[in-house]
Amino acid sequence: MKAMVLQSPESLVQGEIENPTVEAGNTLIKITHSGVCGTDLKIYQGGIPVDYPRIMGHEMIGEIAEVGGAEGVEVGSRVIIDPVVYCGHCYQCRRGQTQLCPTGAIYGRDRDGGFTEYMQTAADAIFPLPDNISGNTAPLLQVMTTCLHAQRLADIFPGDSVVVLGLGVGGLLHVQLAKARGAYPVIGITRSPERRALAEQLGADFTFAPDDDVDKKVLELTGGVGADLVIESVGAVAVLEEAINLARIGGKLLLFGIYTSTELKLSLYQLYFKELAVINARAAKREDFPACIDLVSRGAVQLEPIVSHVLPFSELERAITMLGERDNKRMKVILDHT
Ligand SMILES: [Zn+2]
Ligand SMILES: [Zn+2]
Rounded to a whole number, what is the distance in angstroms from the first to the last CA of the chain? Predict the structure, then answer.
């Protein structure tokens, strides 16, 4: 079968590799669509170290080619693959924190992933897709599960005020999930006018640019107290500082952006004085997949407006390098393997 193999940083070649032999209890999936994400770009550039050769890709859907123990699916069923692999018997797994399994792995980083023709997965890691979720949008469900998992940790109630800093793919999903949970107002912040318009189309009650006197506007919109929850969806320390400013006394911060900085200049006194709860979220759990599939199928969350490009699988390298270019009109890039 054909696969796009990363042989070393920035050396991605289309290779002919052997079809996987399906182990007992596993299921073979013919990949039809995949999403590229910032993690793939970092792996491609060598910023996230992996063992070479490696097939990247952790957002993938496909059709079942061979059933091995999976229930409720048959050959030809459309499914999404949860890329998280966990052991099931360590301390974290027994506590239900499978996303944090210390010996766990993620397809596309620690094991070969979805930028290929066929891959095999554990039977419990696939979830059937309804016909009304198209292949060109379905890989985004994996991103959405990480947002849903994060919001499960953050306890939003109807009427809570939520600020989302950064309106990329993750930020726009957070906006929609917060609305689906009854939050009000949901306020989106980004420099990009295109992304502000998109956020409003997807349900944000208000949007502002960062230099638009945001502190004052958030106070005005929250009865003078500040936001109950601020979601940082950029991954920059300066934005985290702004999140601390915008949260109300006794409020919460959800750190969704991935920080790679090891140096920190932050108003730690404000963090203490406001008694802010700081919530970090990583990956997702199996339970998040059916929940996200249902929300999208019912139309409570829209994925289509967040997909800006659908490219043929052969253009994977172009798709990955596009992520490194500044372009506010580019949102999710999906690859069509068919
Ligand atoms: Zn991703
Ligand atoms: Zn484990």
Answer: 13
Q: Which residue has the higher pLDDT, 318 or 25?
A: 318
Percent of the chain topping pLDDT 70: 99
Please tell me whether residue 274 adopts helix, strand or coil conformation.
coil
Residue 72: helix, strand or coil by DSSP? Answer: coil
With a cut of 80, say whether residue 281 has pLDDT above it. Answer: yes
- All CATH 3.40.50.720 domain ranges of the chain, comma separated, are 144-280
Alpha carbon of 283 to ligand 1 centroid (Å): 9
* Domain range 2-138+303-336, CATH class: alpha beta
Q: Residue 194 has what pLDDT?
A: 94
Residues whose CB is under 5 A from ligand 1 (ion)?
37
Report yes or no: 19 and 31 within 8 Å, Cβ to Cβ. Answer: no
**Kind of pairing between the strands at 332-336 and 162-165:** unpaired
What confidence score (pLDDT) does residue 1 get?
92
Q: Which pLDDT tens digit goes with each residue over 89-135?
A: 999 999 999 999 999 999 999 999 999 999 999 888 999 999 999 99
Cα-Cα-Cα-Cα dihedral sign, residues 288, 290, 296, 300: negative
Task: Say which ligand is closest to the CA of 57.
Answer: 1
Is residue 317 very low, low, confident or very high in pLDDT (cuts 50, 70, 90)?
very high
Determine the pLDDT at residue 79: 96
**Residue 324: how many other CB atoms lie within 10 Å:** 12
Taking the centre of ligand 1 as the mean of its atom positions, its distance from the CA of residue 143, in whole angstroms, is 6
Among all ligands shown, which has an atom nearest to the Cα of 95?
2
CA of 81 to the centre of ligand 1 (A): 13
CB-count exposure of residue 150 (10 Å: 0-12, 13-18, 19+): buried
Sign of CA dihedral 221, 227, 229, 230: positive
Outline which parts of the chain fall under CATH 3.90.180.10. Answer: 2-138+303-336
| CATH of the structural domain 144-280, one choice from 3.40.50.10540, 3.40.30.10, 3.30.930.10, 3.40.50.720 | 3.40.50.720
